[in-house]
Amino acid sequence: MALSYNSHQLFLEAPTIKYFGRTNFLEISAKQGFLSQDDLGNFWKFGNRKPKSRINPLFTVSAASSSSSSFGGTASDYPEELISERIKKKRSSIAGIDQDELQDPRQLADSDSCFCEFKGVHIHYKVCEAESSMSKDKKTSQLDDPNRKFGFPMIFLHGFGASTFSWHRVMKPFAQLIGSKVLAFDRPAFGLTSRVSHSVCSQADDTKPLNPYSTAFSVLATLYFIDFLKSEKTVLVGHSAGSLTAVEAYFEAPDRVSALILVAPAIVAPLSATNSAKENQSDKENQVQESNSTSDKHPNLFVKFGQVMSKCSGYIINTIVQVLKGIMNVISSLYKKAIVALLRSALAVTLVRMIINKFGIAAVRNAWYDGNQVTDHILQGYTKPLRTKGWDKALVEYIVAMLMDTQAKQKSPLDKRLQNITCPVLIVTGDSDRLVPSWNSERLSRAIPGSQLEIIKNCGHLPHEEKPDEFISIVTNFLQRVSSGSEELCFQT
Predict the structure, then answer these.
(1) How many CB atoms lie within 10 A of CB 456?
(2) Three state DSSP letters for the chain
(3) Which of 69-83, 222-236, 395-409 has the highest mean pLDDT?
(4) In whole angstroms, what is the distance from residue 426 CA to residue 151 CA?
(5) More confident residue, 293 or 172
(6) Using 50, 70 and 90 to split pLDDT, how confident is the model at 327?
(7) Averaged over 82-106, what is the pLDDT?
(8) CA distances to 278, 428, 433, 442, 448 from 272, in Å
(9) Domain over 105-271+401-484 is classified CATH 3.40.50.1820
(10) What pLDDT, on a 0 to 100 scale, did the predictor assign at position 345?
(11) Which range is the signal sequence, renumbered to this chain (predicted)?
């Protein structure tokens, strides 16, 4: 069978013609140049008429001749191959990142990236230092005033799903502000920090391996970088979930932290009515004690018998409660183990990939007050860690670590320890934060004695990215007050 065609039409001599779905084929034929726009229009005009001539425009052809193989298969097969290729490419992509070519984190490092090993984990970090002299073409500001130097270095702790990239707009200005180094590092499971397993982080002197994805590990890593900066004290700046790490690091070594700056802190603040409830409870207890003391002045056998029976019933109830608590702890332990086993399954990893693919980019835009201001450069900065090997399993391990945080259970609840913070604290939040509402920050500021609250208008969950100039100005004023010894703040000497 012979095929011949010109620039406008493809003709078939002595054809065997079959009519398949014409819409898909015509669209592909037009895109590939087999049909011109005029021919496409003529087809829709006369497409319902059966061809009478032996030489007709080729709509779809099914021929047994081997010459058709030069076109890459039959016309009916071509769309299927094209569609299957697109589906395969879509399946291997997460948030626009090809998952068939994942790399080692070091291969994705920036020019200013640094790596260090801590307890078996290769942590990615960046350091900025104050410039010795400013170029003349730069605008002078309060950050350039030598009288405003704070002196202590700063460590930045990013939030969930973020990395050192989150601080790229404020690190250099802060380095110039304090006249010292500023450092940001990627917490395990995020950024370009290596993804490792539990056993890798075990040490000879440890009874149990330290989970690299736990809050305790991030706290120890923070203290490690304080020593790395060779400073007596440092300012800890935590954003969202990074605020929890900053606060826990303070409680671990309060003498090493000069100030805390909590940005949109993802810390559940205690209710404002908690203190008043405790006061009311104590008043009731005092009233009960007073009534008992007055009754003791007039002893009665029936009263004493009632007291003995009350104590016995109290012991019995207390025993029952303890037994029930033990049963609940066993059930809770078994339940958590089942959840952990499920989370570490291949199904959970697939689910995490689906969630990141579906909502990852949307979550970044939602974190801003105006999602239209999120540029491609910002999206690339947040999706870059998706190019690293094992990012999905590490994220699952991070979730498991939060559920199985045994060290947190050994401590008193954080909301009861907040009142013990004695260093200066600044809380910064956006008035339109959709992830951590500003009212939570307001409650948190009331729970921490002497803390300062600043709310940035028309700002979302990322003040240091969305409003960097205003954020820097607020922090500058705060550190200036700290360095000048303002009486409005509580100081740790």
Answers:
(1) 21
(2) CCEEECCCCEEEECCCECCCCHHHHHHHHHHHCCCCHHHHHHHHHHCCCCCCCCEEECCCECCCCHHHHHHCCCCCHHHHHHHHHHHHHHHCEECCEECCCCECHHHHCCCCCEEEEECCEEEEEEEECCCCCCCCCCCCCHHHCHHHCCCCCEEEECCCCCCHHHHCCCHHHHHHHHCCCEEEECCCCCCCCCCCCCHHHCCCCCCCCCCCCCHHHHHHHHHHHHHHCCCCCEEEEEECHHHHHHHHHHHHCHHHEEEEEEECCCCCCCCCCHHHHHHHHHHHHHHHHHHHHHHHCCCCHHHHHHHHHHHHHHHHHHHHHHHHHHHHHHHHHHHHHHHHHHHCCHHHHHHHHHHHHHHHHHHHHHCCCCHHHCCHHHHHHHHHHHHECCHHHHHHHHHHHHHCCHHHHHCCCHHHHHHHCCCCEEEEEECCCCCCCHHHHHHHHHHCCCCEEEEECCCCCCHHHHCHHHHHHHHHHHHHHHHHCCCCCCCCC
(3) 222-236
(4) 18
(5) 172
(6) low
(7) 75
(8) 11, 19, 21, 10, 12
(9) yes
(10) 84
(11) none
Domain boundaries, the chain: 3-91, 105-271+401-484
Q: Which residue has the tokens 């002893």?
A: 299
Those residues with Cβ within 8 angstroms of residue 59's Cβ, 6 or more apart along the chain or in another chain: 17, 19, 22, 25, 26, 43, 47
The token duo for 34 is 């087999």
Residue found by looking up tokens 């913070």 in the block: 421
Residue range 243-260: mean pLDDT, rounded: 96
* pLDDT, position 221: 97
Q: What is the pTM of this model?
A: 0.70
Q: Name the nearest CA neighbour of 413 among 214, 248, 278, 279.
A: 248
